[in-house]
Amino acid sequence: MSRKVLALLVGIDHYRAAPGLRGTVNDVTLAEQFLKTRCPEQDPSSIRVLRDQEATRTAIIVGLRDHLGRAGPGDTAIFWFSGHGSRMAVPAELWHLEPSAEMQTLVCHDSRSDGVPELSDKHLSLLLGEIAARGVHLVVVLDSCHSQSGTRNLSRALPPVTDIPLIEALLPDLLAAASRPPAQYVELAACRSSETAVETWVDGRYHGLFSWSLISAMRRLGSAATYRDLLTAARCEVERYVSAQVPQLAPASPGIADQPFLGGEVTPSAGGMRMRRVRRDWEIDVGSCHGLLADGYDDIRVAVPGPEVREARVVRILPERSVVRPLGWEPDDDLQYPVVLSRVPTPAITVGVDAAHQPTLDLVLAALETAGPAGGPSPHVRILGPDEERTPELRLDVPEPDRVRVSDAEDFPLCDDLTGVARDGGRRVTAVLEHIARVKRVKALTNPVSALADVVTLEVVEARPGEVAAPAERPPLLPGADGVLRLQYRREADLWVPPTVFVRIRNAGDRRLHCVLLDITERHRVHAGLFPGAYVAPKHVGAALYGRPVELRLPAGSVVEPGATTRDWLVLLAAEEEFSSSPFELPPLDEAWPGRTRAPLVVSGLLGRLGLAAVHRDAGTMEGSACDWTTAVVPVVTEVPGSVEAEW
């Protein structure tokens, strides 16, 4: 008998006794579309969706026990909850299970009305344990506030329940079950138990930022991606918008979290894209549920791989397919063409403003309006209007005359305050905003549909004392529950010694791939010094710095003391044909002067063209041939251990 994939998807925008949300139903609809695409051979009844008033506490419990309860040994079961999360006090009988004295909860549609309690993490663990104990591969996705260990900005948070619930008001067998070892399953949570999960406007509608980021990662990385890979990629996407929400993976230790999504045994649909004639239109078999983004993007293109450039523009994006229009060539109606993404969306980074001194802000806004080609508006940043309901990616504050502060969406400063704004008419502030936007674009460059996503990986490996050459097969270091790889200085005698690692690029495919490894530093520099560009042979491994150890230290001028941290993003770019790293390279932020350009004289390869589009003002015309390409990101925090705990 073939394996089954069963899913229970819960999305609650409307509550009886709690404020409403706007994106949870969109979340589970997106998840449903993805699962139907990934597992097309499954019975449609294998996916049950509970929306709004359908998602009562009783209905969720019944869905877990009866619907997911149909799963047997070797099957896969998925529970996805998108809605409010909260906390409640721990009953005295369970004090030993929660040193914080609080349980995390899922708020059901009828919770907090007519005496209906919430669904606590202890309840959920018991219900999920019943499923996992039967040999089921169980996956839990929780997009709610306080979601780590069990359990959204509108927020997806509600104030905690302060009354201690009676143990008999929970589940009759909870107390006995609490003494048993927990069942093994994979949990992907939107945030830490102390944090809130953000709901934001993306792709033309509201979504939970974590749900949208996770599904985007699933589409992009392919069927071979592990849960750890998915969490890392989703965390990177969340970090583009907020810094105070850190997605979590459990268990974080090596094991089941390193299995492929869905257990790796379900046969996925074929990778890549194909263009074919359907009635009067040409279509590609990829749409919004595969990762093509329609909101605000008007020039997405695909191309037939090969030495002759044959492109088609995407003119309409549907959930499961897209309509395209060939550009300057006539395809054969009787043929199907494999295609790759040849122009990716590079939307302007959105900026929210808050000005106590309007004249200074007016100078900056005027400079942005003339910073683009031919004196037009900046193509890299866009100021949000006062009526736009979306979370900005950057914030611009003018707290006093002639002083400007640039920060991320959570008000974390990205550079020192900028002064002398009147002296240069706001051009320096414009240069800084555009530079940060360019760095963000490089970090976010992804191919949502690539057949290479399953075959090329970036590995960071421990460098042991005295080693001078990278080992070929030592297992790589694993990121933590937040998707971040953390490295620490060590103390030798009276000196702090920075950590050293080896960095490998593994090509598990059947053809050689041209690879470039970018390092994006905390000071907003992008460089390819670790691996400037070379082919990695099939079934072979390449190494950064020709196999020498890579030292990760604090930036020059930083004080090496307990609690000090820095962060790097290692970005791997891989393509079937050679390309240049030059278009991606950017200097440190303090060298981002107005008018400076680093555009290369010659751009080779499709990825080089895409990099030029992301970083500079004009991608130009397409040169050379089209090819498949992919990216991978590993975020790294380097810290000096001590009493001050660094947060990412």
Provide keyphrases for this structure.
single chain; about 650 residues; alpha+beta; Rossmann fold; Thrombin, subunit H; 4 domains; six-stranded mixed β-sheet; six-stranded antiparallel beta barrel; about 15% helix; disordered C terminus
Layout of strands and helices, then pairs:
Blueprint: E1 5-11, H1 24-38, E2 47-51, H2 57-67, E3 76-82, E4 85-89, E5 102-106, E6 119-120, H3 121-132, E7 137-143, H4 174-178, E8 186-189, E9 199-202, E10 205-208, H5 209-221, H6 227-239, E11 248-250, E12 273-278, E13 281-284, E14 301-303, E15 311-317, E16 322-326, E17 337-343, E18 349-355, H7 358-369, E19 381-383, E20 394-400, E21 403-408, E22 418-419, H8 427-444, E23 456-462, E24 485-488, E25 490-492, E26 495-497, E27 500-507, E28 513-521, E29 526-536, E30 540-543, E31 550-551, E32 565-575, H9 606-615, E33 629-639
Parallel strand pairs: 1-2, 1-3, 3-7, 7-8, 18-19, 18-20, 24-33
Antiparallel strand pairs: 4-5, 5-6, 8-11, 9-10, 12-13, 12-17, 13-16, 14-15, 14-17, 15-16, 20-21, 21-22, 23-27, 25-26, 27-30, 27-31, 28-29, 28-32, 32-33
Helix pairs in contact: 1-5, 5-6
Radius of gyration: 25 Å
**Count of strand segments:** 33
Share in β-strands = 25-35%
Shape designation: globular
Mean of pLDDT: 84
CATH domain class of the largest domain: Alpha Beta
Poorly predicted ranges (pLDDT <50, ≥5 residues)? 149-154, 265-270, 596-601, 644-648
Helix and strand composition category: alpha+beta
Query: What is the helical fraction, as a range of percent?
Result: 10-25%
Count of the domains = 4
By CATH, the topology of the largest domain is Rossmann fold
- Going across the major beta sheet, what is the strand order? 2-1-3-7-8-11
The biggest beta sheet is recorded as: 6 strands, mixed
How far apart the termini lie comes to 46 Å
Helical region count?
A: 9
CATH architectural label of the largest domain: 3-Layer(aba) Sandwich
